[in-house]
Amino acid sequence: MPEIRIITQAEVRALLPMAECIDLMADALATLARGDAVQPLRTKMPLPDGSGLLGLMPGYLGAPRALGIKIISYMPGNHGTRYDSHQGAVMIFEVEHGSPLAIIEASSITAIRTAAVSGAATRCLAREDAGDLAILGSGVQAASHLEAMRAVRALRRVRVWSRSIDNARRFAEREAARAGLAIEAAGTAREAVEGADIICTTTAARDPVLEGAWIAPGAHVNAAGASLPAARELDSAAVARARLIVDRRESARNESGDVLVPLREGVIGDAHIAAELGDVLIGRARGRRSADEITLFKSLGLAIEDIAAAHHIWRKAVASGAGTVVDWGGER
Questions:
Q1: Peptide bond into 64 cis (omega under 30)
Q2: Is residue 68 within 8 Å of residue 92, measured between CB atoms?
Q3: Cβ pair 235, 210 in contact under 8 A
Q4: Domains in the chain, ordered, with CATH?
Q5: Cβ distance 236 to 256 under 8 Å?
Q6: Is residue 171 within 8 Å of residue 236, measured between CB atoms?
Q7: What is the DSSP code string of 84-118?
Q8: What pLDDT score does 76 carry?
Q9: What is the DSSP string of 139-201?
Q10: What is the phi/psi pair of residue 124, to 5°?
Q11: Which of 89, 106, 116, 183 could form a disulfide with 176 if both were Cys (CB 3.0 to 4.6 A apart)?
Q12: In 10 A of CB 241, how many CB atoms?
């Protein structure tokens, strides 16, 4: 009888190190750019009271051949509680017969792969000497982005800002001890980003927390927090000043307030999206063109990223015996 492997949150963290995931995400986006993937827009079902939504993210990846879907709830009211704002599962299938292979906890996959994609973007878009990092936000993604930035650049200074200075201070103390480096808690977002050459926005903000006037020439920005048409972390000037690279043009044009608002305002045109990151990774499009150019990577999160991570986790789990295997069915 066909079996399925159940893989928990703790097992995901052990099986998906950040450095491995950065390479996985670069490979997945390169595969997408070559046309060997299927990446529909996600489906979102809002709850009637507006308190959250259920998201469905199916996709197919040709290398390695993997078919899957992420089903995840998004509950913004969970911020500041013991519960993650994103909870759910990634389910992957083998491609020949369509048999389910694994059900894998999605919160940790989301946390790791989102930052890993930013890591892949930073590796190819930030200046080689970039090492002054500003993080806006103090939650799960802030911590994951710190780990990803440490994996791709030698950091010499780190500043963090949060709407709650207490949260920023707690983050700085906790992550400094974990990473073995000094982290400063900034009183304002502007103080955090002035002079920084890598900026990561990882907030749940619906209105801009980063203004274009604050961004230093030559900086690279990873905008990873907002993923709804009505929400954005960057003001229109920040987007207009930058060379804009996205994970997927179709997603950015349908789901990203950071892109849609300045488009509606007429501050940018559709051609302002310079490239998809996968095109830069395979050499089809240029990334950074000069030392003083501001680069901006707008990340929305793609199903193929989750599927690539899940397939990697499943293969390692099979090899190591991790997870819980149960009979599933599917035979006639």
A1: yes
A2: yes
A3: yes
A4: 3-110+304-327 (3.30.1780.10), 127-302 (3.40.50.720)
A5: no
A6: no
A7: -SEEEEEEEE-TTT--EEEEEEHHHHHHHHHHHHH
A8: 82
A9: SHHHHHHHHHHHHHS--SEEEEE-SSHHHHHHHHHHHHHHHTS--EEPSSHHHHHTT-SEEEE
A10: -105, -10
A11: 183
A12: 19
Residue 80 has a pLDDT of 73
**Which class for 222: exposed (0-12), middle (13-18), buried (19 or more C-beta within 10 A)?**
buried
203: helix, coil or strand? Answer: coil
pLDDT on residue 16: 98
CB 237 within 8 A of CB 212: yes
The C-alpha atoms of residue 217 and residue 10 are separated, in whole angstroms, by: 40
- 81's tokens: 């509680």
Contact 110, 303 (CB under 8 A): no
pLDDT at 1: 59
Our measurement of the distance from residue 196's CA atom to the centroid of its chain's CA atoms, rounded to an integer in Å, reads 20
Taking the chain (332 residues) in consecutive chunks of 10 residues, what is each chunk's mean pLDDT? 91 98 98 97 94 95 95 86 88 94 97 98 98 96 97 98 96 95 97 98 94 98 90 96 97 94 96 98 97 97 98 98 90 69
Q: What is the pTM of this model?
A: 0.94
Q: Which of 184, 209, 203 is nearest to 134 (CA)?
A: 184
Rounded Cα–Cα distance for residues 143 and 163 (Å): 16
Q: What is the CA radius of gyration of the chain?
A: 19
- Tokens 């986006």, located at residue: 29
Helix (H, G, I), strand (E, B) or coil at 285: coil
Backbone angles phi, psi at 69, to 5 degrees: -150, 140
106: left (phi over 0), alpha (psi -120 to 50) or beta: alpha
Q: Report CA-CA distances (Å) from 294 to 28, 105, 137, 221.
A: 25, 36, 21, 8
* pLDDT at position 257: 92
Encoded tokens for 277: 């990151």
Q: Give the tokens for residue 219.
A: 């900086």
Size of the chain, expressed as the number of residues it contains: 332
